[in-house]
Every structure is written in structure tokens, then in C-alpha cells.
Amino acid sequence: MMPNETILLVEDNPDDVELTMRAFRKNNIANNMVVARDGVEALDYLFGRGAYASRNTADVPRLILLDLKMPKMDGLHVLEHLRADERTRLTPVVILTSSKEEHDLISSYKSGANSYVRKPVDFNEFLEAVRNIGLYWLLINESPDRN
């Protein structure tokens, strides 16, 4: 069985969603991308609740790109839920945020983030950052078999 190649993008800013999706396309990263607009929706998707109750929760995304500053539930709380659940404990989580606060960086790693990437403001730099994220987490990194 092929591992799930879906990327879950957890981002509340529609411009950043479009920019991220565009950057993946421009870098020829063709993985299916699911977008959750806040932390509650992300957890609903991952754990098959609410609008996602019929989703097969055994299909865990290959990678989660997680913003920190979101409505309903911030990224750090989402990360804590992910690391507390056996189904998502080993899923790679890359914090992709505009935050430049040292506290956010430290808290992200303490909560179990695999990587912390500040969103570059310049589009070309953003493209390069997304290319590097895709190359590393989707091609180079070896994830444990979760089946």
C-alpha cells in the first residue's frame, strides 16, 4: 500500500494559502494539498470529526505545514494534540509562520515540531523555502512506516 502523499496546510490567511499552493506548483511538487483554515478544522480533518466524520483517519498526511497564529485554536495547541495522539505522533510537522518571536520558536520545538520556517516576505525567497521544504520532507527524509 502506498503511503498517503497528502500535505495538510493549516493556514487561516487566504493570501498565504494561495501563495503556498502557488509555490508548490511552481516547484513541481504535485502532492495533494488539503487546507484547514484553523486549528479546530485541522484536528477535525486528522481525527475524522465534524465535516470530516466519514474520512478514513488511517490516511495520515505525509507532511503538515502549520501556522501558529490562527483563530479558534493556535498552532501550538494543534501541535500538542498531534503529539499526544498515537495516530499523528510521528507525522512530520513544519511550522510555517511569519512569527519572529523567539518564544514561538522555542515553544514549537518543545511541543514537538520537526522544523520551524519563517515565511520570507519576498516571493522568490518564499519559493526557495517551499522548494527546500518539499525536497527535504517529501523526497530526502525517511519517515517511519505508520501502517
Can you offer a commentary on this structure?
The chain has a domain of 25 residues. The relative contact order is 0.18. It has 147 residues and is α/β, with parallel strands linked by helices. It starts with 6 loop residues before the first strand and ends in a 7-residue tail after the last helix. It has a 5-stranded parallel sheet with strand order 2-1-3-4-5, sandwiched between helices.
Which descriptors apply to this entry?
147 residues; 5 helices; alpha/beta; 14% strand; single chain; globular; five-stranded parallel beta sheet
Can I get a quick summary?
This protein is 40% helix and 14% strand.
Task: Please give the structural blueprint.
Layout (H helix, E strand, L loop, with lengths): L6 E4 L3 H13 L6 E4 L2 H9 L15 E4 L8 H10 L8 E5 L4 H9 L4 E4 L4 H18 L7
Helix pairs in contact: 1-5, 2-3
Summarize the helix and strand pattern as letters: EHEHEHEHEH
Poorly predicted regions are none
Radius of gyration: 14 Å
User: What is the helix fraction of residues, given as a range?
Assistant: 40-55%
What's the average pLDDT? 89
Q: What's the count of strands?
A: 5
**Within the largest sheet, what's the order of strands?**
2-1-3-4-5
Give the N-terminus to C-terminus distance in angstroms.
Answer: 9 Å
The helix tally amounts to 5
Assembly state: single chain
User: Describe the biggest sheet?
Assistant: 5 strands, parallel
Inertia-based shape: globular
Report the sheet-strand fraction: 5-15%
- Given helix and strand content, the structural type is alpha/beta
